[in-house]
Amino acid sequence: MSQVAPRVLIVSRRSVRKNKFVDFVGEYHLDLIVGYGVAPVIVPRVSGMHALLESFEPIHGVLLCEGEDIDPSLYGTTPTTSDLSADELEEIRRAHASDTAIDHEKDAIELRLAKLCIDRGIPILGICRGSQVLNISSGGTLYRDLEKELERKCKEEDKVAHIDYENYDGHRHAVRVVENTPLHSWFRESLEDGKTEILVNSYHHQGVKRLAERFVAMAFSRDGLVEGFYDPDACSPEEGKFIVGLQFHPERMRQCRTDKFDYPGCPLVYQDFVNAVKAYQNKTSNSIDPKLGLKLGQGVQMKRRIISRIFSMARQTYVARADKTPSREDNFEAGAEFLQPNTTLSLQEEKRLKQVGATVRNASSYMERLKIGKEREMVAKNLMEKMSIGQLTELLSCYHIMAQICSEVLEKKLTIC
């Protein structure tokens, strides 16, 4: 039986068609990754999806694509801290009406995926907005509008038009490619004879302002804007490592009315990404029984231990309150006694049970277990109310993964039996 193709998650973008919202992904992205042997899995950018991402496991790669402007509050910019006036912001909204409508669901999903990839070492490629998401996820910031913020700092000869609505797909501007970077290796054939620049397409009015510390720039436009970056500690496709962000669209850099690429290096970006995805799949699938299909990364296991410790503390709190003798087990594991479900009865049901208690064997013991279960539930609830949204999300994610593993192992054992 042939090996199952690796899975690359791609978050959809919302549009309006026939007076209703529809989700879509550009075919140029899909054509390339499918052509190189990867199965694209489209994640709909709908409400609540950010909390269900573990349902898409196994994840072998993530491709973050174009979309609307990212919520500025996610990179520390608010109306009171912005360098732009209210009039300037309104002018930006009028000039870029199709991009300035914030899509909070897409923001939440893609930021979560970016952090997941970095945490677990999953290959990730960010294109255009996707590169901005990748930068923000690691602590970087953005210019809210290049013309208003960056251009005013530039000399006239260094100014760059980063978007041209009159020549949308045909517009190009030069970027300087940094030597000894992945981008330089992809476009090496076009950078011979001392050349340092290539012409790239450009569809954006925002861009990287402060590059996150983990990243290294691979290309700059003449106004100094970072047009590409990578993580040098996580960029080795043959080892399943790939974290790259490009502000331009290599998949759309094609000659007019043809499918021929501007440069031979354009598709190589996706080819190396897919190579990393395949290597990551092989690396993770070889580390466990392939039938289990899921491997906890080191980061996830660390979070699991932290969460286990939180519940251990909660258990000790409960034991102290109940004046019970604590367990001798030092390492309280997730899924142990404290977390066993105990369905509690309503007051009415409890009264009815008490009424027949004399005829029910061990009724008092049963009622005591119910009360203990209720007390444990309250201790856990009080503890969770003190946790942050991020901690609660990680808690839910961790136990979702553990439940999936438990289900798969149980199914395997039942099959053997």
| Number of E strands | 13
Mean pLDDT: 82
* Low-pLDDT segments: 289-296, 326-342
| CATH class placement of the largest domain | Alpha Beta
Instruction: Classify the beta-strand content into a percent band.
Output: 15-25%
| Alpha-beta classification | alpha/beta
GO molecular function, one term: hydrolase activity, acting on carbon-nitrogen (but not peptide) bonds, in linear amides
Pfam families: Peptidase_C26
Task: Please give the structural blueprint.
Blueprint: E1 7-11, E2 13-17, E3 20-24, H1 27-35, E4 39-43, E5 61-64, H2 86-95, H3 104-120, E6 124-127, H4 129-137, E7 141-143, H5 146-149, E8 173-177, H6 182-186, E9 197-200, E10 207-210, E11 216-221, E12 226-236, E13 241-246, H7 266-285, H8 298-322, H9 347-355, H10 363-385, H11 389-416
Parallel strand pairs: 1-4, 1-5, 5-6, 6-13
Antiparallel strand pairs: 2-3, 7-10, 8-9, 8-11, 11-12, 12-13
Helix pairs in contact: 3-4, 8-10, 8-11
Structural overview:
- The protein contains eleven helices and 13 strands.
- About 6% of the residues have low confidence.
- Helix 3 packs across helix 4 and helix 8 packs across helix 10.
- It is an alpha/beta fold.
Short overview:
The chain has helices at residues 27-35, 86-95, 104-120, 129-137, 146-149, 182-186, 266-285, 298-322, 347-355, 363-385, 389-416, and strands at residues 7-11, 13-17, 20-24, 39-43, 61-64, 124-127, 141-143, 173-177, 197-200, 207-210, 216-221, 226-236, 241-246. It has 417 residues and is α/β, with parallel strands linked by helices.
